[in-house]
Amino acid sequence: MGGAGDSRGEQGTVGLANKPERIMPEVTSLRVLIVDDEMYAVMGIKDAIDWRGLGVTDVCEAYNMREAVKILERLPVDVMICDIEMPKGTGIELLEWVNERSLGLETIFLTAHGDFRFMQRAIQLSSFDYIMKPVEFDVLEQTIRRALEAVEKKKAELALTEQYKPYYELWNKKKTVLSEKFWYDLLAERIVAGPGDAERLPAEYGIALQADAKLLPIVVSVENWKRELSTRDEEVMEYAIRQSVAEMVVADSRGEVVQTKHGVAAAILYVSAEEEGALRDCVGERCGRYIEACGAYLNCSVSCYIGEPVPLHELTDRYKALLALEYNNLSESNRLNWLSKQEAEPAADPRLPDFGPWTLLLENGKAEELGARLGASLRELAADRRFGASALQAYYLGFLQMVYYLLQKKGLSAYRLLQDAGIPAEAAPRTLEQMEDWGVRLIRTVHRYLFQEESTIDRLCAYISEHLAENVTREVLAGYVHLNPAYLSRLFRKEKGMSITDYLLQERMRIARELIESSTLPISDIAQSVGYSNFSYFAKMFKKVHNANPQQLRKLSGCSGGAAGGWIAES
Fold first, then answer.
1. Band of pLDDT at residue 390, cut at 50, 70 and 90
2. Residue 218 DSSP symbol
3. Are 306 and 336 contacting, i.e. CB atoms less than 8 angstroms apart?
4. Distance CA 14, CA 248 (A)
5. Nearest-CA neighbor of 399 among 346, 344, 437?
6. What are the residues facing 111 on neighbouring strands?
7. Tens of pLDDT along 5-51?
8. Comparing 178 with 535, which gets the higher pLDDT?
């Protein structure tokens, strides 16, 4: 929110209303550094890439680590394209130096050597990508574009963090006061006020109210945050919401803002008999400005629910009526809602769709048609005044049951697929818009796993080839493709004609044979690279597959490198 001012003295609220314009992250130039000991490689990259199209304004070059360090000490760099094996310091050492200083750039490694140790260290150092030479320039350009986008995203997040940083300081200094406790307990029904308590009861908590004073309740509900927040950040931003409600909605009127146990901010305005008419006229305007300010400065969507001035003993009931109004608002966001303008709801529930035919659409791969039906159904129900929060919950559960049925039928893990869709099953949608977004994403996720172009087994085999050195179990593989283990075993045997265990053995021994015949690596190292720490067991499995022990095959290949790298060879 930028530099937050304190416009309400001791209450410590933030000067949200006084901001003349939205603070945006400062637009900066993008700089790329190319590091390679081969001059022609550097010049080739400089000439082949459309830097202007990528938004890059400056391309620097260095031919060893020392030159690169001098540039990095002098200039901010966003993306570094770096060779690994260079004189005067490797690319790995250069990235270690960068990380020690937290320079915040993204590194793309280019190398002609596919050494697994280099790749492993590059991953540990959080490099952006690792590309083998020779590289096609359009592939490199796309990688650079993604790296620059990652840099821009981090810059935007940093700017936003700085924008609401003042709230951390205010939040840490925040102390519970008696008046807040009174209103919190009253709305939570821990305190019960009677008709004769309007003056006496508040006075016990240091609140001065006239016997004939009325109270105007306003509920402020955050509908969604426009960026993902950690739990701590969300708590801080909720504090910012309360502080800005006090500044812009309560403003120069007397009143209090409290975070209730129901998760909303409640503003309570003290209204004298002579103020009632004028205050009611201006409170809508205040709330409208506040909604706009939240979208601009706090990156969230909010709605305000405005009640009517009532005596103290009627406040809790009026607050509960506003909560019900908020709970049943499924389609209207970023707007004012007046309790006095609401019509009585019919008692009957709306009729929900028959999800049975929808299951057939999804099972037959008609994801687009099902998504269209979902949207049309929700739009039809939005016009039905009976369609409230309880009906949305029933709709959600019916849709979820349909998906669970199909996934169980196909042997897929529903829990894992829901995670992959981006919304856990327990996070039920609260609005029609959220329901449609959730439903469409879930439809697409299920469709992708049922009808993907690359088969599940092909994906599994690719995963196995990349993790041969690890302890690859059936459960690990089942988790990777979101299938239960028993179903995966049947599917694998049907497509490959062998069990997963036999396939793992064949792949490990195939790679081992290639390395024995074409390299001088010690056989012990080869055994470890394909997942065997016990050489005797490796030799036994190798002979079982290839009808020859590893040492015999090494001698026949003509490659020298030691019989077994320190182990005693078997005859």
1. confident
2. E
3. yes
4. 10
5. 437
6. 132
7. 333 333 333 444 444 343 334 446 899 999 999 998 899 999 989 99
8. 535
Residue pair 530/512 in contact by the 8 Å Cβ criterion: yes
Spell out the residues 6+ positions from residue 28 whose beta carbon is closer than 8 angstroms to its own. Answer: 155
HSE-up of 301 (CA within 13 Å, CB side)? Answer: 10
DSSP classification of residue 385: T
∠ Cα 243 248 250 (to 5°): 85
* Model pLDDT for residues 309-331, shown as the tens digit of each residue: 999 999 998 998 888 888 777 65
User: Rg (Cα) of the chain, in Å, rounded?
Assistant: 33
CA 231 to chain CA mean position, Å: 13
Cis amide prior to 134 (ω within 30 degrees): yes
CA 411 to chain centre: 28
How far apart are the C-alpha atoms of 478 and 359, rounded to whole Å?
Answer: 24
Strand order in the sheet with 336-338: 255-259, 265-271, 214-225, 300-306, 336-338
DSSP state string for 235-254: HHHHHHHHHHHIIIIITTSS
Residue 23 is classified by DSSP as -
Q: What is the largest CA-CA distance in the chain?
A: 106
Can you tell me the distance from the alpha carbon of 167 to that of 147, in angstroms, rounded to the nearest whole number? 31
Q: Are the CB atoms for 262 and 199 separated by under 8 Å? A: no
CA 44 from chain center: how many Å? 37
- DSSP state letters, 45-103: HHHHS-HHHHTEEEEEEESSHHHHHHHHHHS--SEEEEESS-TTS-HHHHHHHHHHTT-
- Give percent of the chain with pLDDT exceeding 70: 82
CA distance 308 to 434: 30
The rounded mean pLDDT for the chain is 80
* Residues 290, 302: Cα–Cα separation, whole Å: 9
pTM for the predicted model, two decimal places? 0.43
Give residue 194's identity as a one-letter amino acid code: G
